[in-house]
Amino acid sequence: MTSGRVQRIWRFVALPLLLIAIWQIAVSHYVPASSLAPTPTGVIRGFVELLTSGELLAALEQSLLRIAFGFTFALALAIVIAVLVATWKPFAYMVDPILETFRPIAPIAWVPMAILWFGTGTYAAIFIVAYAAFFPIYVNTLAGVRNIDRGLLNAAKTLGARPTFIARAVIIPAALPSIILGARLGMGLAWAAIIAAEMTVGSKAGGGGSGGIGQMMFVFLLYRLDLRYIVVGMISIGLVALLIDAIFQLIGRRVSPWLNRGN
Amino acid sequence: MLGRMTRGAPVQWARPVVRYVVSLGSFVLVWYAASRWENNPNLLPSPQVVFKQFVLMVQSGELLSSVWSSLGRLLLGYALGALVGVPLGFAMGMYLPLDQYISPLIEILRPISSIAWLPLGLFIFGVGNALPLFIIFYGSVFPFVINTIGAVHQIDNRLVAAARTLGAKRWLVIFGVIAPAALPLVLVGARIGLGIGWMAVIAAELVGAPSGLGYLITWYETMLLSSRVLVGVFAIGMVGYLLDLGLRKLSAWLTPWWDGWRAND
After folding, report:
1. CB A108 to CB B199 under 8 A?
2. Residues of chain A numbered 77-96 and touching chain B (CB < 8 Å)
3. Which residues on A lie below 8 Å from B207 (Cβ)?
């Protein structure tokens, strides 16, 4: 059993370690220093430098705050609209074709308009985040509400519950697993979109303070030309993405423990 | 679906069309009213101005040439993603040690979105065609690999066992049994990858390409020609929609026995 475990661990670390070693040796021995190519050890030093100077955490904090605002807004709006579309026919006929027209438009495509409307700052980023998160939440909530057992709804109606009470006590809890799945997808998309938004805004704002991790990376590219810091930014983006996803999985298991799906 | 509807009374298909027209018509009306209220064509151009610019951009050929250069990049990068991702996914799905060696690398790289590679890619490749290609490849390869592995794993072992019992050789088992049985879920990965790839093209063109729809919208944004930006934005949505629709139709045609497509709409 232990030898099996050793083999599994070896197979897990073998390829990443090999590639990191090749990267280190190739850059430090065969690439001229003037090429600015970073080494793995240089990236680790850069990581420590950015952490101790507080730059990295400040940029991440700004990006995450924007995500939090835009996402909360999208979540509330998407749930309300999806429940209305699923339960109130005239509203569905009015709203659904409009939403289906906008749904295929990638959130990133709105970046230039967002800059025109909201300037090169926080509001543009929040708009992009909200737009990116809205559609996955809306689509999944709608599917969740439509799949609710009719028997539950009929029972609530027969017992004389009012529409607002049915929405709060029957529809939302029954659709909750779908809502959380949509929220998880929406959050993933929002995290990718905000990086793109901050980069594009950053490349326009002339290095000025729009802030956020995306803009920080662009500043390192254009003005300080330090590739180590760019790689640190990429790794941080990946770590935050993993963390966000883990949190949503945890919430999903907490909120709907009766679903023992293996993801 | 259309066939079933037309057989009934004409009112049956007329009703959804009327609803559609009413819905989008009132949206355009609200847009028109808002543009009159705002009265600043740089911020919110009216619908008829956007339509006029759309016609002008189609006539000058500008819109189509942007669509083609974005589409060309997308298809090339996406094809590379499929060429690498699908065989790798099959190999990893069928041979566990390979999965154990390569999966960690994939799980390390996957959370780093393709967009996060833009600054480094811009430094390495510069402004041009290589950057969007790399970003699209990176964005679409993971859905291909992961869905192909999942597709191979969900295949009913009895199918493979039956083929072997009947004396099928290894390659016949792979191409005659495993590949068709995996196809529906591989195509789901293809659909996810196409969506991500299209987003990646636009993102890459926003910062580092001299042509294409992403470049077009930033270019007109700096010129403050919002009406033309909006034409580009709607074109991006339209092309994205048509790509998805085309792939769905292709998938339904390739795998007529599988009905997950209808559930996935």
Report:
1. yes
2. 93-96
3. 199-200, 203
- Of the residues B146, B199, B248, the best mutation for testing chain A's interface (the one with the most A CB atoms within 10 Å of its CB) is B199
What secondary structure does DSSP assign to chain B, as a single string? -HHHHHHS-THHHHHHHHHHHHHHHHHHHHHHHHHHHH--TTTS--HHHHHHHHHHHHHTTHHHHHHHHHHHHHHHHHHHHHHHHHHHHHHHHH-HHHHHHHHHHHHHHTTS-GGGGHHHHHHHH-SSSHHHHHHHHHHHHHHHHHHHHHHHHTS-HHHHHHHHHTT--HHHIIIIIIHHHHHHHHHHHHHHHHHHHHHHHHHHHHHH-SSSHHHHHHHHHHTT-HHHHHHHHHHHHHHHHHHHHHHHHHHHHH-TT--HHHHH-
A18-58 pLDDT per residue, tens = 999 998 888 888 877 767 788 888 899 989 998 898 888 98
| Partners of residue B127 in chain A, C-beta under 8 Å | none
CATH superfamily membership of B61-264 = MetI-like (1.10.3720.10)
In a domain, A260, yes or no: no
The residue segments making up the domain with residue A15 are 1-37
Task: Judge if ipTM > 0.85.
Answer: no
Under the banding of pLDDT at 50, 70 and 90, the label for residue A262 is: very low
Residue in chain B lying closest to A244 (CA): B111
* Residue A200 is assigned to a structural domain of this protein: yes
